[in-house]
Protein 1
Amino acid sequence: MTKQEFLSMNDHSLLKPHLTKKEIMEGLQYAKDNHCASVCINPCNLDIAREVLEGSDVKIGTVIGFPSGAHTTFSKVAEAIVTAGGISLKEFSPKTMESKLVKGLYSAGEVLDIDAFTGGYNLQAAFSTGYVAAMHAVHGDEE
C-alpha cells in the first residue's frame, strides 16, 4: 500500500486545543494536498477548515462534548439541541412505542425524530419513551 492509498483511507486529526491557527491551517493544507479521507477538527475551527478545504474531496468532521476548551459559545448551544432526523414518530404507536411496521420492534429517545431545545424536554422524552417501550416490550399489553 502506498502512502497516498493509506492517507486516502484515514482521518487527519487536528484536535489538540493548543494548536495555533497557523498549525491548524498547515494541517488542513497537508490533508488537502495528500487527499486524506477526512479531517477531525474542533468546532471553533470549522470556518477555517471549510475555507482551506474548499474544492477538495477531504471531508470535515468535528467533535461535540469533548472537554478540550476549544468550543465556541455557538457550538455549545448547538450541542444542547436534540438532533432531528431520526425514525419518524408516525411509524410507532405512541401508546406502546412499538413499530407499526415490524412487530416486536420498540424504539425510544433520540433515535426518534424529536427536535427540541434542552431544559429537560429531550431527557423527559427519552425517559418517557424508554419507559413505555420497555414496559410494553417486557409485559406486552398486560397492565
Protein 2
Amino acid sequence: MRFIAILLSLLLMPSLSSAQEQVGKIKVLTTFSILQDMAKNVGGDKVEVETIVPPGQDVHSYQLSPDDIKRAASAHILIANGLGFESWLDKLVQSSGFSGKLVIASTNAMWIPLGKDDTKSTMFKQKGNNYDPHAWQNLNNGRVYVANIVKGFAEADPDNEKLYNQNGIVYRKKMMELDQSAAAQFRKIPDDRRKMATFHDSMGYFARAYRIKYLTLKGPDSSDDISAQDTAQFIAVIRQENVGAIFAESQEDLSIMRQVASESGKKLSGRIYSDTLGRKKNIDDSYLNIYRHNVNAVLAAMGVSVN
C-alpha cells in the first residue's frame, strides 16, 4: 500500500512542461540584458524572460538584491555567460536555492586566453578562469550562445523543441549575415588604420574577428583600479600607434576616454556597446542592433562611409 502511495505521488508530480501549462510560460532569468534578448528570440511567446542586471548597468560591479535572489528561486531556467563574467553567480544560485536548469551560454564558444602579463585580468584569474569572458562580441560565438540556449530550452520544454530550433535557425542566420557584411567592410581598411581603443578590455573578440589592433586602459574586469601612470602609458601608446578610433563604452563614464582622446591629440569617436543593451527602440535595444551600431561606429571612425 505504501509503494502504491509513493508511485501515485511521483506520477502526480508536475514536470516543467505541465508547470508551463499552469502558468502559461516558462520563467527564464538571465544574468544580463544581452542574454535576455537572445533568450527572447529563441523562446518567443513560450517564455517569460527577465534579467538580473538591467540595460545600461555594469555587470562587473553589480550588487545582487533580495529581489534578484527571489526571482532566481522561482525561475525554471537560469542563463549565465560563465567564464567568470558574473562574479556573483555562485552566490545567486546558492542563496536562492535555484533548482531549475542552468544554461552556461559560452559553453563550446571559441575563447581568447588572457595574457600571462595581463595585469588587467586579476579578478578572472583569481576565480580560476584564464579566458576573456566577453565571447559574445564575436558573432560566431553569438551563434554558439544561441545553440546552447536552444538546447537548454528544448531539454526543459521538449513539447516546444521544434519551435525553439526554428527560432534559433532564423536568429543565427541573421547573425551570420551581419558578420559577413561587417567582415567585407573591414577588409577594405588598410592595416595601419585598423586600430581602436576602449576603456576596458571588452571588445577583444570583436577586434580579433575583424583583424583590428586593439588597445585598452583596463582589463576584462571594468572594476579593476587604474593609476595615473596607467593612463599616461595608455595615452603614449595611442599616440605612438596613431589610433584614430577611440571609444567610450555605453555603461561607463565618458570623462576618462574623453581625456585620453584629448591628450592623445584625437577626438573621442563616440560610444560603443560592450556589456549591455540600451533602451532606445531599434537602436540599442537588441544584441543585433548594438552589434550593428558598433560595426558602423568603428568603420566610421576608421574613415569608411557607412550608409
Protein 3
Amino acid sequence: MHPCSLLMENVLGGIGAARAKLRPARTVVTNAVGERFEVRRGTSEQGRDELVKIEKVGDGFVVDETPDTELARVCSGLFIGAADAAWNEEGLHSYKITHVLSLVPSFLLASSQVKYHLQVDLLDVPEQPLRQVLVEQCAPFIDQARSTGGAVLVHCNAGISRSAAIVIGYLLLVTKGLTLKSALQQVQIARPVIKPNAGFLEQLEALERDLANGSVPFFPGHPTRP
C-alpha cells in the first residue's frame, strides 16, 4: 500500500475511534420568554426534527408534560406556582386568591375569583435585573393583597426560577433579620422544585447585603413568617 494511503487510513481509523467515544449530544434552545425546548432529530412522522418542551430541575432535565396546578403556600396570603396554577379555578377559589402576579409576557388570566392582576415581563436569564421591578412593582402588589385580607399567587412559566426569586426577594424586603438562606428554605419547603437562576441568586445576595448595611430600606410590609 502506498505510504500516503496508509497514513490516510490510519487517520480515518483514529477519527472513527474517537467519534465512537463521544457522548451523545443534546441540542437545547431557549425562546424569548425563557422556555426551554430539546431538539429531537427526525422524530416526527415525516422524519423532521421536533421541539419538545423541557424544564430544568436540579442538575438534569425532565420533559414537562403534566400540568402543574399546585398553589403552594409560602406564608399567610402568599402563594407560588407555575402558570397552570393561575388557570386552576378551583384552587384560586379554594385559597381565596384575590391577586395574581404574572411574571411572563402576555399572560391571559380569566377568573371570577381574581380581582387584581399585575403582569411584569421578566425573562429567566441571569442578566435580567430584579431589584427595580421587585421594589417598585412586585412587593407593593404582593403586600396590597396581604394587608387588605386578600391572597396573592405569584407565578411564572414553570414556578421554578422567576417566581421564586421575586417571592424570596419580597420576604427579604419585609422581614428584618431574615437571611437569604432562610428565605430560600422557606420557599423550598412550600415548593421543593424552586431554583432561581445563578444571576437571580447573585442579585438576591446583593439585596441581602444592602438591607443589612442599611443602604436599602426595608419595605413596610406584612409579617411573612409561615
Protein 4
Amino acid sequence: MNGEGEPFAPSTGSPGPGRGDRSRHRLLEAAGEEFADRGFHGASVRGIAERAEANVAAISYHFGGKQAAYREAFKLAAGRFVAAVRRELSGVESSEERVGRFLGLLLTLEPDPPSDWCHRLVRREFLAPEGWAEDSIRRLRADLAHLIWPGGPGATGLEPGRPCGAVLQALLGPT
C-alpha cells in the first residue's frame, strides 16, 4: 500500500518521456541491482553509478542519497512483487495452495527471469531486514496478507496456531 492506504501500484518502472526520467530510471534499476546483490550496507553509491554508467553525483541529484535510493528501489520492487503474487494466486481457491504458491514465489532461489532484482530485494528484506524501508515493508506485508488471506486468517482456516498460518504470521506479522 502507498502512504494513503492504497495498494502498491504494479509498476513496471518504465521511464517517462524526458531525458531526466530515463536517467532516473536507469539509476533506479542499477540501485535495485546493487542493493539486491549486496544489501544496503554492502552497496555503494559508486557501485550504483558504475552499474548505471552514470556520475556519482547523479544519485544525489535524483534521489538525495543512498537511503532515499534504497527506499525508492524497494517501493518499485514491492509493487512488482505484489503484482507477481497477484498473478500467481489468480484463480487459486484453496488456502493451503495460496500459501504454498506464495512461499514458493518468495523463496524461489532462481527467480524468473534470473536478473529479477526486485524479487531478490524483496526476499532479502523479508529474510534479513536492514531497516531502511520499514514503512514500505509494513505496507508490503499488509498487501500480501490481504492477497493471501482475503477474508482474514480466521476466514481461511489458516489461524496462526496451525502450521501454514504460523509460517505466514512469522513472515507477514499479525493481521
